[in-house]
Design goal:
Elements lengths: L14 H12 L2 H13 L3 H29 L3 H8 L4 H14 L3 H16 L8 H10 L3 H18 L2 H28 L5 H8 L8 H14 L6 H6 L8 H29 L10 H11 L3 H37 L3 H21 L16 H27 L3 H8 L10 H29 L3 H17 L4
This protein binds tryptophan (TRP).
Tryptophan binds next to helix 1, helix 2, helix 11 and helix 15.
Length: 476
């Protein structure tokens, strides 16, 4: 694995700019929309505990590896794998495919969030049926698609501007705003009478709720939340200056993301219990429960609700921008397209897939993609979250542990010996043995429960895609 000096490649302008952009990629709907409802559906703190263990022993190491491979090759996912070992090109191809798939539903939820900023202003909170309002809204064939398109166009605009002017600037302004907003909401939530039951739910593990499915759910959530398993952090690493300390930055970003997820839990569950609502609301949790909570607070509730959905939209935006960048960087690096053209082409595909996802909440509700038993939204979501990301992480671990020269890795992670990485050997053993084995175990347990839930066709389809890409992607 040769070290590539970056002369012409775009780079992050500043260290803090990189950290905010990478943390911005990590912190998103995964933390604020998905983490609370997954926690609610999987029994609270036992799920959080398993999640935290996976973050520490699997995901942190994977993030370090993604940054290292990206920076070493100075290429985005496909090129990075290909430049080291052409047989592994497919792992990068799967990453680009995953980016397309995630961008097939992410902008839909981003659009909901954007819409809820305005709905909070225009009287949503005074409605007596907030839950019905949400169902009606997402099932509408036109309105959510318009919001999705507006949301997606923000993404295209930012990514078309490039790395330091676009993505980095957006992260610098938007990420700190998000943290401040979350703290304001927590301050209100934890001081409500009766909020302590929510703290209990978050802090006292109930292991009777843990099943085989819980582990795959927690692992998929950890990969999703930290933007791992599909070359996203690899792409961001390819713009990283060779002076940066990779392990330290990865630790910081992992901590920021985890803190943010916990903060989102702290913002939602205490208030949820204080008002006697159910934690098992599902994907509607944020959009139903949060406005319900705020609706009981009078006019300050309206303001907090507006702030909350601005925060959610902002967090989502800095994440989806990174997903789009994975595809755009691939088209620039491998297909030699100009940035703006690459953005136009990928945006065009994403607007169509997201439209189908949005429609699958309403008029296409009963339509099953390729007869696999799920609608478009679930198809994109489950395929990535439950299959591609974890498998992508496993492939990366095997690749790094078995195909990349150990000395090269050490050289990259210590900046040629200039900085210390005392845990290098532990990290290496994790990559080579522990992470691949752990992911195989968790994935097998999860598969059993997916089969029980009737998802066997979808699972076989996903595995088929992986095999097909391994066979065909050498030509790419
Ligand atoms: N991590 C983001 C979130 O939590 C979503 C995301 C951005 C992502 N880039 C990714 C997920 C790459 C998986 C892979 O919302």
């Amino acid at each position: 694995m040769n070290k590539i000096e970056s002369k012409e490649r775009e780079q992050w302008g500043t260290r803090i700019g990189f950290i905010l952009a990478a943390a911005g990629s990590a912190v998103g709907l995964g933390n604020i929309w998905r983490f609370p409802y997954m926690t609610g559906e999987n029994g609270g703190s036992a799920f959080i505990l398993i999640y935290l263990i996976f973050v520490i022993i699997i995901c942190l190491s994977i993030m370090i590896a993604e940054f290292a491979i990206g920076r070493r090759s100075r290429l985005s996912a496909v090129g990075a794998y290909k430049s080291i070992s052409p047989n592994w090109t497919f792992a990068g191809v799967l990453g680009v495919l995953s980016a397309f798939l995630i961008m097939g539903f992410y902008p839909v939820v981003g659009g909901w969030s954007l819409a809820y900023i305005f709905k909070s202003i225009s009287g949503l909170l005074s409605s007596t049926a907030i839950s019905d309002a949400f169902g009606d809204f997402i099932g509408n064939p036109i309105e959510p698609i318009i919001w999705m398109a507006i949301y997606l166009s923000f993404n295209l605009f930012i990514v078309a501007k490039g790395i330091s002017e676009g993505i980095e600037k957006a992260g610098r302004i938007l990420m700190p705003t998000l943290f401040i907003l979350l703290f304001i909401i927590i301050g209100r939530s934890v001081t409500l009478p009766g909020s302590s039951a929510g703290m209990d739910f978050l802090l006292n593990p109930d292991f009777s709720k843990v099943t085989g499915q819980t582990f795959l759910a927690a692992l998929g959530q950890a990969f999703f939340s930290l933007s791992l398993g599909m070359g996203c952090m690899m792409t961001y690493g390819s713009y990283l200056s060779s002076k940066e300390n990779i392990p330290k930055n990865a630790l910081l970003i992992t901590m920021l993301d985890t803190v943010c997820a916990i903060l989102a839990g702290l913002a939602i569950f205490p208030a949820l219990f204080a008002f006697g609502l159910e934690p098992t609301e599902g994907p509607g949790l944020v959009f139903v429960v949060v406005p319900t909570i705020f609706s009981k607070m009078g006019s300050i509730g309206v303001i907090l609700s507006i702030i909350f959905f601005i925060a959610l939209t902002v967090a989502a935006l800095t994440s989806s921008v990174s997903l789009l960048e994975v595809v755009v960087a691939y088209l620039i690096d491998e297909k030699k397209l100009a940035r703006k053209i690459a953005v136009g082409i990928s945006g065009g595909v994403m607007v169509i897939t997201s439209m189908l996802s949005s429609l699958s909440m309403g008029i296409l509700q009963d339509f099953h993609v390729l007869g696999l038993g799920v609608g478009f939204f679930d198809f994109f979501d489950i395929l990535t979250d439950k299959i591609f990301l974890a498998i992508g992480g496993m492939l990366l671990a095997i690749f790094v542990g078995w195909n990349v020269n150990k000395e090269d890795l050490k050289d990259e992670l210590t900046n040629g010996g200039e900085i210390d990485f005392p845990l290098f050997n532990l990290w290496y053993i994790l990559m080579k043995w522990i992470i691949p084995i752990a992911i195989i175990i968790v994935a097998s347990m999860g598969m059993v429960s997916m089969i029980k839930n009737g998802l066997l066709p979808l699972m076989l389809f996903g595995i088929g895609i992986i095999i097909a890409s391994a066979i065909f992607s050498k030509k790419l």
